[in-house]
Each structure stands twice: as C-alpha cells, then as structure tokens.
Amino acid sequence: MIQGKDMLFSYVISVIENRDFYAEYHCEKVQRFTRILLEKVIRFCPDYKISEEDVDTICFAAMLHDVGKIVVPDRILHKAGRLDFNELEIMKNHTRKGRQIFERLMKLTREDSADYALYKCCAEVCMYHHERYDGDGYPLGLKGDEIPIAAQIVGVADAYDALISERIYKPAYKPEEAFEMIIEGDCGVFNPRLIDLFSMMRMELEEVHEEIMRKKG
Predict the structure, then answer these.
(1) From the CB of residue 35, how many other CB atoms can be counted at a distance below 10 Å?
(2) Is the pTM of this model over 0.90?
(3) Which of the two residues, 38 and 23, has the higher pLDDT score?
(4) Does the pLDDT at position 133 exceed 70?
(5) CA dist., res. 39 & res. 195, Å (int)
(6) Which CATH number characterizes residue 72's domain?
C-alpha cells in the first residue's frame, strides 16, 4: 500500500528539497530519527498503543511533514535574514497547507481503507508537528496529549534535525549541542516521556547523521 505511493511522494519530496538546498536530506533524516524514537515508544510506552504496523505509516508521514512548504514563496524560503511577522505567518501556514493536501486525498478514499488511515496520519503530522507540549507551538497552541502522538514524535525528530542542519540563516549545531538543547527545552517543551526516550538515542542519532553527511559528500 505504502510502496505503491513511494514514487509519487518521493517526487514531491524532491521538489521541496530542490527548492530549498539547505533542506537536502531533511525529510530522510526526520523519517529515520522518527523510526528510532518509535521503536523506543513501542517498547517503553505501550499505553500510546502504537503497533509495529503503525511504524511504517508514521514514518511515511514523517517523510512528508513539510509538504505544505511547496506553496511557500521562494523569497521567504530562501531569505537569508530573520523573517518579519507577515513572512513568518506565511511560513507557519505550511502546516495547514500540508493538512489540506491530505484531507483532499481522504475525501477521495473510503474511510475503511488503509489508504484513508495513511492520509489521516499524514494530515495530522503535517498540521501538528510544530505544536509543543506546553501549548507554546503552532498553529493551534494545543497542549499535552491534545497533540496526536505521531505528530509529537515527528516534532522531536524535526526539531533535532533543524538544529544539526545548516540553514541559509544559521550554521549547524554540533550533534552533541543539539541533543542537549532538545533535552533542555531550548526548542520548545516536548512530552517529557518522549524526552526520556530521546535521551537514550544519542549514539543512534549521530550514526544516522554521520551516514547521511557522508552520502551528501
């Protein structure tokens, strides 16, 4: 089911990453960091009811978490300096745009189908991966477990990769610095249970990062 869509959505991801040179490999890294964290959630947090079957679905959504950026103008996406208020609001709206893309697909799909469940997960991850556990995120300022757990997990992975990746407006942090920043809440407050699990992952995260940096050359 997911494999049949890989070619289409891989093309979409390549369009996003080609528009934003500094985002190269971001989707892949977020997906792989998400998978590592999911393995810990399944083992240590069974009450979240994430099954082995859910892992591929959530990881697929992780690859597409930024699909809404496809409508963000280049002048904002490539701006070297700090975004002004209006530009920041346009950038933040990528969460809603991503959800809209998958909600349209949901309307074309039977509700009892596996595709519908996949698109629903993608819609939630796109919409909520910038929410924070204390309510200080966007777009809705949800708190705690009002935020779907899949989006919480992808949010941690996304924030970590944003720190260790160079951007046009900032240099990359060292992985060990980024790791501590996530744990200390410097990028917003995350679910403390997920942070406990994240704290076990340092070596795995760095291995993935180093592997992809070698590929990047």
Answers:
(1) 18
(2) yes
(3) 38
(4) yes
(5) 14
(6) 1.10.3210.10
